[in-house]
């Protein structure tokens, strides 16, 4: 186990922002991680967990022990005629797991293709896209206590999943490190193609018979056509959550903005696309030096190279205020600020 000092984190955040960790450790096993968590030399040092860095905005140097869990492995726990249960290490790259499942014919996460980040971050954020969320397939989450190093197993219900939320972002924030998950996947696919442009894209791709591969390919095509590649333009994907507003407020706004999209959630509440609101407020394609709003997707803030995290944060605050002034809707961020 090696602990380094003054380590650049530029390669560990998809915005490509320069930031320095006071201490840094990359760990490939639970045993090493547990040893570090109870190491007497670092008990009083603040800890910061950094996986793939796909959902974080680094606005300063991190004066802490930055822990990069890199626990790998995909193991079949059990299977029957209808389902298969996989145990997956938290350090596995999410999209690579999706592609593994597509090749094997395991259904349930194909709609989540090309989402950046690691498996360990997936339940924390309850990642989702095109009508599917990771909570739909997760049965267990394994995590180590940051204080004691002891392992705890969380059931799906104990994770308290919500829209881009979980117990790991609320009551247990910064208290556990997710080291792995157990996922229950389908051998007999149940396709979800009614959300967004999936059905339209499948038709354009001349797909006549649905398959896990076809749905995954359609999702990848859509995401690549709308979202910038973090390897080319620094970004963290969707920067803001889609807000939910009361039906009465939605109806009033609809009278003023007839093209306002809306998707019913629970009775009396409507989810509104944040990207639509931001675009209508005039921010799509906005650029200020090295940072800006992506030209094809207003939901994505970008670093064109050499940008600073504090400037991106300031831009996000201006966008939130603009949307609030025009629509009376408060936006909240998916991205975590450090």
Protein traits:
Uridine Diphospho-n-acetylenolpyruvylglucosamine Reductase, domain 1; 20 strands; four-stranded mixed β-sheet; 24% helix; Uridine Diphospho-n-acetylenolpyruvylglucosamine Reductase, domain 3; Uridine Diphospho-n-acetylenolpyruvylglucosamine Reductase, domain 2; 338 residues; five-stranded antiparallel β-sheet; alpha+beta
Description:
This protein folds into three domains: 4-69, Uridine Diphospho-n-acetylenolpyruvylglucosamine Reductase, domain 2 (2-Layer Sandwich); 74-186, 2-Layer Sandwich (Uridine Diphospho-n-acetylenolpyruvylglucosamine Reductase, domain 3), CATH 3.30.465.10; 234-337, Uridine Diphospho-n-acetylenolpyruvylglucosamine Reductase, domain 1, CATH 3.90.78.10. It is built from eight helices and 20 strands. It has 338 residues and is an alpha+beta fold. A five-stranded antiparallel β-sheet has the order 6-7-12-10-11. It has a four-stranded mixed β-sheet with strand order 1-2-5-3. The longest helix has 19 residues, at 309-327. A hairpin with a 5-residue loop joins strand 10 and strand 11 (151-155). The radius of gyration is 20 Å and the shape is globular.
CATH class designation of the largest domain: Alpha Beta
Categorize the overall geometry: globular
Span from first to last CA? 26 Å
The level of helicity is 10-25%
> What is the N-to-C order of secondary-structure elements (H for helix, E for strand)?
EEHEEEEEHHEEEEEHHEEHEEHEEEHE
Structural class: alpha+beta
Q: How much β-strand is present in the residues?
A: 25-35%
Radius of gyration: 20 Å
Using the coordinates shown, work out and report the CATH topology of the largest domain.
Uridine Diphospho-n-acetylenolpyruvylglucosamine Reductase, domain 3
Total of helices:
8
